[in-house]
Amino acid sequence: MHSRATTSHFSAASPTFAASRGVSSAPQRSRRGRETWTRAFDSPGEARERRPWAVSLARVFEWEDVLEASSGDGYDDESTSDDDETGERTGKASAPTRGTSDEFVIVDGANVAWGLAQKLKSRFQAKTRVPMSAAVVMALDYEPWLRRGLKTHAFIPREYVVGYVNSVCDGGGLGTVNADVVEYLGKGVWCNRRLMDEVEKGRITLVSRAGDDGRGSRKADDLTILRRAKEADAWICSNDKFRDHRRERDIGFSGGKAMKEFARLRRIDHNFVVAPGLDDVTLDAMLEASEWNPRVGSHHFDAYDGPRRAPPRVGADAVSPPYHAMPHAVLPIYFEPLPTDSMKTARKTFLERKDWELPRIK
């Protein structure tokens, strides 16, 4: 599912730790979040005619029949070359504004992280759910998107990366925190190293849910995703239909109907395929052969200075294996984007009529 992340140390004096505690460096982190988004999507070059909605959609899902049908109308499919290891599209890049030919995929980090958690809970009847950082990285690294030159970027609540143990990805609690990817910073604050590495690379933007009035807003990341997606005419990878945000007036839409239509046309579903073709007997054999020893629980953190919990039981005495911490070699998991029902219908319609354009969203 994932490999061990490169360790990077964050002390109590670091900007990351300070931002999590709400001290003076928080405004700098806020500006940095905007810079991260700008770095990820702004690129030099002249804007060109944007691809029609159906052609762009076909590139997202690799619908070769739609792409072939559209090629005769002058809408070519530019993909990265096989030797382009960076995932950047060959040819001139264009700015991420309406009317350009680039495609952007915004990943709803919280939704994706919990999506894999729920998948593992359902697959193995686990008693707990732990949001997974590997899910976010899998979506960002989805090979067909990178090969075709689609740019990916994730927005995720700050506390999923730096926060208390029950809020950070791969945390969930003192008994489930994964020491392979989470670091203890001190004073009850933890950091997901895997996601923080992606923040430093400019591939993830942290969204504060604190709010200017101190009361906080759990919808802050959703509103940011909708606002940025409209700005860049981007696709949104999320199973959230955003129905509870249609009355928002400060995210750039003319009204609830416009926001609903944008979400209908631009939101794509996602799924995680867990151990395809492998039954429980085979998985148990793979686990035993791997000799993998989970580093799960607060007792693996020498610097931890909070309340102690008894180490989780392992082996034959374990209630259930820590599936959320298993590496890909032990528990293979694959990310896949899924078209919505309306997109499936549109595919058939477009192939029959070759009607590539849709009304502009106001």
Automatic annotation (TrEMBL):
Record's compositionally biased regions (Acidic residues): 74-86
Sequence ranges assigned to domain RNase NYN in this UniProt record: 104-249
Region listing for Disordered, in residue ranges: 1-51, 70-99
Annotated transmembrane regions: none
Pfam families found in the cross-reference section: RNase_Zc3h12a
Biased composition (Polar residues): 1-14
Protein name: RNase NYN domain-containing protein
Organism taxonomic ancestry: Eukaryota, Viridiplantae, Chlorophyta, Mamiellophyceae, Mamiellales
